[in-house]
Amino acid sequence: MSSGYSYLDNQNKKYVKQVTVPAYIASTTSFMVTIYPWPSFACLNKITLRTSAAPGTASTALTVLNNGAAWRSAASTAAKAPFIVGASSVNVVNNIAEYTFSNGVYVEDAYRTNCLYLNFSNSTFAAGDTFTVTAEGTQMAPTHIIDNDQTPFVRDYSWRILRVDAAGVCTDLTQKLMRNGNPYGLGSTLNDSESFLTFDTASDVLYIGSTRQFNGAMFLVPDGSQNNTRATFSLSTGIGFTSTTNIQDNTSAGMGVTSSLSYSGVIKVTSWTGSGTSSLTFDPLYSLKASMDNMSNNVPRSMLYHPDRYWLRVSFSSITPSDLKLVGILPIR
Questions:
Q1: Could you report the per-residue pLDDT of 272-299, keeping only the tens digit for each?
Q2: Domains, the chain
Q3: What is the DSSP annotation of 289-324?
Q4: Binning pLDDT at 50, 70 and 90, where does residue 307 land?
Q5: Handedness of CA 119, 120, 124, 128 (dihedral sign)
């Protein structure tokens, strides 16, 4: 199967991608940009950073990480080390910094998520600053091609995504956030992709369900998300929910462990011990199935597939800043 980044069609093709990060509400010492899409195999030649305001100091460090950063195997800042493929530090002059790499930096999209991560650090980036990042590279032939076009995403037809707001209103976002099962059905960048889910307040809750105990999900987050609070995770028990720490959250700012959904990455469930399946009474399909099952109702009937599921609940004690957007949630192996 040939993809948009086929090694047969696009070898040695120059590739340029620009991302604009919305204004930061508060000052920050670092921010991470997700370049999406990025070729499965490429040589990164140059990064240009443009800031709307001069940073606290001229010297600004850049760390280039392959997309394994989204899947790192340990939940600590130090765990990013195996995924660093390049680093540089230059001075910002007239609000511009240009990073070049001798002979380029080879980046392999080993996990087939088409993401390239760039982390910028400075003593202070000013509140209200806007960042424009341009990545330039050359698409290359892969070092191995046996599974070049495979992706980690699975077609889980029992996968279900629900949002419940402060008023208790439940919205079914399954097909929209799964992009109908197509991880490439996005805009030219994550920032200009349509956002189907927004956490407006801490009262908003996300439910993700499947008939099997799933490994986790890839969360696609616009670079302007900027969330700096940690999520609370709970698993269904069959009669309710119980909080769990059996989570590997790879979406924390700067690859740390203090926030959630600050940038795109994988959130894994490392153990489902004590969990059970259930139906959620506020799920729109629950009411529909109950109506069909009640033979005294004069309603159209069909074979509605709505089994009990294992559920992961994601909630926040606070949202900082005031909203948090998602453009995709995809089940993974």
A1: 999 999 999 998 887 777 666 666 666 5
A2: 14-139 (2.60.120.260), 160-280+308-331 (2.60.120)
A3: HHHHH-TTS-----------BEEEEEEES--SSS-E
A4: confident
A5: negative
